[in-house]
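Subject: Sanity check before I submit

Could someone independently write out the structure tokens for this chain? I want to compare against mine line by line before I put it in a report. The sequence has 430 residues.
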Amino acid sequence: MDWKIEKCDKGLNGELVPPADKSISHRAVMFGSIADGKCRVDNFLFSEDCLCTLRAFRAMGVDIAQENNSSLIVNGVGLKGLTPPGEGLYFGNSGTSMRIISGIMAGQDFESKLSGDVSLSRRPMKRIIEPLQRMGVKIESSGGGFPPLKIMPSSGALKAIDYVNPVASAQVKSCVVSAGLYADGKTSLSEPYQSRDHTERMLEHFSAEIERNGLKTTIIGGKHLRSKDIQIPGDISSAAFFIVGALILEGSELRIKGVGINPTRDGIVRVLKRMGASIDVHNFQEGVEPVCDLKVSYSRLKGTTVNEAELPLLIDEVPVLIIAALKAEGQTIIKGIPELKVKETDRIRSMTLNLARLGTKIREKNNDLLIEGGNERFRVQELDSFGDHRIAMSMAIAALCADGTSSILNTDCVQTSYPYFLEDLGKITA
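---
Independent answer below. Compare away.
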């Protein structure tokens, strides 16, 4: 499917409720499935990525009932209650599913085979394979660390380890912590910078014995999880496209309701505010995950520097942050970009190619990305998602600033995170 996006002359206005948080939806099904008892998951994201996770646990004997258009009832089977699936587990394009579930599968007493689509099969899994092997897990992979993966049962409890992760990655941390549930003793993971803490929050909610000490997370193995109901907030990564759109289009005044504002996830808001963005927080509510409403108005942005420690807190928002930086006054520098090259696509290459078509450019210098701002308008062009949902939606926001009508090719990938993106865009540009 291709999109046609017309220039927006009057800004983004009105109210918007973003889709449920994808990261938290995954984890609610995963940990709800291996907890003891029944939990209700409200505001679950029925996107293709999350449905891959749901199907995997149903295939392993978990009774997961859809109660309405936004709620699930997950009947947990306990840490060791999963049963062998009839065939391999397929995760489509979902790296989150494959990486975190690998930790859970490492503790099972049956063999599992994990595969994905062409894009997922190019994403590196060595970063989870190494710590799992240290825990005594037997794993086979393709091409020296790529999917498909085969995880074979160990003879007993996994070995607890104290692992120092060379990169800040919530997926790697979640994988190791999940495997730690099945280990004999305390399993710890330290990281160089803070990454998302959705796994830690949810495991605490499910009564896991988990400790956090700065950049080190420790979990005690062999302790059962207890199911509790959970409400999933709106996804700030999905909201980010409209936040940036409202900031760069004159005449915008947009209210985004029920957004998750977890401090390990809201880096995009903090960076944009540093650039001069008018983003006001209303109706803040604390909980398992903090939630608020955001009021966003057109702003004259200025360039900034995003340091390497900040990057894990806005890693998925970098493509649309680049669009904001192109419209800002002065130069923006994003440091430590190699991690962006191993996402659904090489996002630096995908953005560079698209932006050249729009008449703008970005350039790499060592491990930094340099973006020259002050671009008054973009050229109308045919753009490409390269099979990456976040590239597709970022290009849609850029197209709102181009004279005429732009085309964006291969947008089916948006089903993985924001199935009704185009519909929501139409509501606030009408």
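---
OP: Matches mine. For the report I'm noting this point. The radius of gyration is 21 Å.
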